[in-house]
Predict the 3D structure of the following.
Amino acid sequence: MDCREGSNFHYLSEFKVFRDDSLIKTIEPKHERNQTLKGLMYGKYRIEYKTMFSKTENVNIELSEKKEYTIDLCINYLDHESDPYRPFIDRLKNGESYSIQVSSMGCFHNSKETITIKRRSNKFHLYFKGKNRLLDKNEIRTIRYFEKEINNMVESYNCTTTDKYVLKYKSTEVIISDGSCVWHGDYFLKKALKLTEE
């Protein structure tokens, strides 16, 4: 499932269960969040699945007693800390800024918004819709993770709504179109930065 708070947007199409590196079962959950596997012997298992970033992830578990084991397979998972990409927010020098522009187009809507991040006196300021404020450490980390996710996105056009992201820093641009109806990066970024009206 999508493990982000407040999300019920997407589910895994399939995951595989291995025992001692031998595939024993492929599960297609469709829209069922909870899957129960019964009759498994004691031992070490590996569950393999693909995230929304088209990365293969594995969860290991050892069954050593008769009880119920619970595992979450998060399609939104990305190992942000080990990802080598250096986000724009970490490249900013004092006095510099960069922008995050999001255009969304669907059957019944068309919108365009820009968030600007500026570094002044070694502090980060956010500018959005004529307002500006200082960013705290958690918000800086949220923006950093957002940028890393953008960098790992695979362009898709399967949905009636397509969100186009353009990140500009100096002469460098990162452009990605997300028509997956899965990631919803703009929604979760603005929610985390308290830029939405709820």
